[in-house]
């Protein structure tokens, strides 16, 4: 486990989606977050006290979390210099970027001298097996998306909480850097060699013999040319009984690809069900999760209602309005007397 409390890094970021790791920690582990470190040119905030490394350390912060993402997941020079400041103050540093902290000699040397640790979250375990697709017992739900960064992690965590409030055993299975930092465990799926993606998920969510649920965080989208491979392996390895489709209605095109339109929701859902059926023949959709943060409340509720009517599924913004409609429908579809492995589609 990465030692808390945390100082969440925003740095010079001006991309709201790009700070999703810091934002996710602020949302789901707020009690462990002492403050945010942002420079004067950063227009974003998480609503936490603004602190630099010295102030955060004085307040008790133990780890600087570099909770930002950029194209290629690289360590920029400004980020490295800020990390060195935190290390000099006696703080650990954690990051989930593709470029590892341990690959920068300056950070390694400074951490060793200060007696602190560097945590590279995007490090998959070395002994991941190749997936085999064998049917395994247990109830598993996977969130899928029309695009990347549309709220799959938020929807998964919100649904976990809703099920737990109903007395259902529900476990969040993290597949990305933010989810791993929140849960303290998981598999950084986009850092796994392609041949082992499905095997990584089979290991992450193995067979279970109770009536509980593994709720698996989705990644990418089948319709995103850059990340569809990860999404496909995840669908096969998860062997899900249930899917929840996640969508950001404010998007005008695929993230980072203005030359690609967003898919139709019904088309996207059908494609995900078809791909999932390779390893889970009885998979079914149980809900739609909209990310309505850019809509006012009335417009958001109207859109949820209209989307649900159009697709014949419960639809909500799980973080804003709660995921009760999806949780209730899931439990109705998969009562303990009707195991997810045999329920009709």
Automatic annotation (TrEMBL):
SUPFAM superfamilies: P-loop containing nucleoside triphosphate hydrolases. Pfam families: DUF1611 (PF07755), DUF1611_N (PF17396). Residues 46-124 form the D-glutamate N-acetyltransferase-like N-terminal domain. InterPro entries: DgcN-like, DgcN-like_C, DgcN-like_N, P-loop_NTPase. Residues 130-326 form the D-glutamate N-acetyltransferase-like C-terminal domain. This is DUF1611 domain-containing protein. It comes from Sphingomonas glacialis.
């Amino acid at each position: 486990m990465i030692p808390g409390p945390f100082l969440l890094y925003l740095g010079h970021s001006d991309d709201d989606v790009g700070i999703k790791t810091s934002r996710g920690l602020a949302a789901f582990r707020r009690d462990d977050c002492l403050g945010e470190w942002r420079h004067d040119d950063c227009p974003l905030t998480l609503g936490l006290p603004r602190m630099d490394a010295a102030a955060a350390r004085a307040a008790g912060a133990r780890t600087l979390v570099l909770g930002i993402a950029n194209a290629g997941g690289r360590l920029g020079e400004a980020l490295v210099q800020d990390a060195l400041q935190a290390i000099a103050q006696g703080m650990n540093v954690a990051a989930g970027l593709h470029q590892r902290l341990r690959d920068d000699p300056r950070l390694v040397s400074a951490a060793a001298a200060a007696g602190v640790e560097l945590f590279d979250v995007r490090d998959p375990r070395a002994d991941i097996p190749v997936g085999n697709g064998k049917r395994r017992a247990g109830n598993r739900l996977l969130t899928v998306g029309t695009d990347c960064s549309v709220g799959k992690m938020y929807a998964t965590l919100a649904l976990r909480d809703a099920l737990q409030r109903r007395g259902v055993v529900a476990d969040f299975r993290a597949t990305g850097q933010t989810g791993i930092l929140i849960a303290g465990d998981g598999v950084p799926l986009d850092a796994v060699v392609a041949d082992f993606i499905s095997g990584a998920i089979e290991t992450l969510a193995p067979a279970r013999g109770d009536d509980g649920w593994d709720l698996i965080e989705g990644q990418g989208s089948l319709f995103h040319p850059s990340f569809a491979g990860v999404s496909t392996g995840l669908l096969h390895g998860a062997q899900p009984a249930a899917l929840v489709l996640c969508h950001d209605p404010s998007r005008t095109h695929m993230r980072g690809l203005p030359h690609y339109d967003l898919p139709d929701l019904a088309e996207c859902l059908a494609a995900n069900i078809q791909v999932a059926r390779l390893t889970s023949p009885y998979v079914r959709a149980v809900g739609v999760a909209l990310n309505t943060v850019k809509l006012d409340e009335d417009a958001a509720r109207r859109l949820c209602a209209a989307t649900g009517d159009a697709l014949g599924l419960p639809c909500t913004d799980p973080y804003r309005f709660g995921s009760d409609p999806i949780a209730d429908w899931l439990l109705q579809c998969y009562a303990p007397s009707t195991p997810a492995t045999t329920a009709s589609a």
